[in-house]
Amino acid sequence: MLTFDFDYKLPEELIAQTPLENRSSSRLLVINRTEKSYEDHTFTDILEYLNPGDALVLNETKVLPARIHGIKPDTGGAVELLLLKDLGDNTWECLARPQKRLKRGTKVVFVDNLLTGTVVETKEEGITIVRFAYQGVFLEILDQIGAMPLPPYIHEKLKDQDRYQTVYAKTPGSAAAPTAGLHFTPELLTKIKKKGIKIVKITLDVGLGTFRPVQVDNIKDHKMHTETYEISKEAAETLNKTKQNGDRIIAVGTTSVRTLESNLQKYDKFTPERAETSIFIYPGYEFKAIDGLITNFHLPKSTLIMLVSAFAGKDLVMEAYHHAIEEKYRFFSFGDAMLIV
Q1: pLDDT reported for residue 208
Q2: What does pTM read for this prediction?
Q3: Would you say domain 67-145 falls under CATH 3.90.1300.10?
Q4: Where does the pLDDT of residue 211 fall: very low under 50, low under 70, confident under 90, or very high at 90 and above?
Q5: In Å, how far are 65, 77, 91, 117 from 295, measured between CA atoms?
Q6: How far apart are CA 277 and CA 102, in angstroms?
Q7: Could you say which of 2.60.120.320, 1.20.1260.10, 3.40.50.620, 3.40.1780.10 is the CATH number of the domain covering 3-63+160-340?
Q8: Are 184 and 25 in contact (CB under 8 A)?
Q9: pLDDT score for 209
Q10: What is the enclosing helix (H) or strand (E) of 81?
């Protein structure tokens, strides 16, 4: 299967540059896999499609202000780092620009020496391993000097940094938001619980594996980077009970899908663990964990649209995308949503 098979043309004006004032007022395209049909709705209509006993799985990762700017003290050259993954011992996997000017041992100073970094290793595709030195608490320093790592297709300045966080974000560690969750409000989640739907929270720290573009012709040649996920004992027990009762598991976002499918691939049932995954889901994949998916509209030729196509069928997904374009849905991170059942 070719990467080109997942391409489509999107008018630039449909790329949402800012979040809506009310998170849950976005539009919702509902896809029925069995009937091979789709309908236009508003996101609050999600209640109509969730049944008592269903488990709604949320990724409670929190986005770090992971984009930091510094200079090389020896030359004054500017350096930008995007923190991707905590490797321990104050060492992080980062995307660096310009990487070609960074060599092993290069030092970088950030904002009044609040933070310094030393390059440990440079790898392919801009990946750079950096060890940091600082006084105090690292996450507090990031809050002072870092910026939200908005995707490159968003050109408007984000007035409220919390709008690139879900309302249930808890565990810091991501370099991008699990954007399907941005549509939920505390009020909507309360209504969902009152209907008898179980809220299950897991974590996958969103890194390069999620948003790295596919740059090969044959999708089977694409290599996913690893990301860390965690499923608690309570979450595993709830998910297993849901399966045993014959109820549905509805994943909010592709990150939740990758977590659940990775875990169930390894074991006969959902099992508590903190582990890494490089799972790449594309058409032909046999789903074991999920029965439904809430997701945003994804970039052409991305691993995310491939995952969605694996779940709903490529032809139906591409047809639904073209419908969304005709109806002027808002696309990507701050855009509208899709429910697949």
Answers
A1: 74
A2: 0.95
A3: no
A4: low
A5: 23, 40, 32, 36
A6: 29
A7: 3.40.1780.10
A8: no
A9: 67
A10: strand 78-88
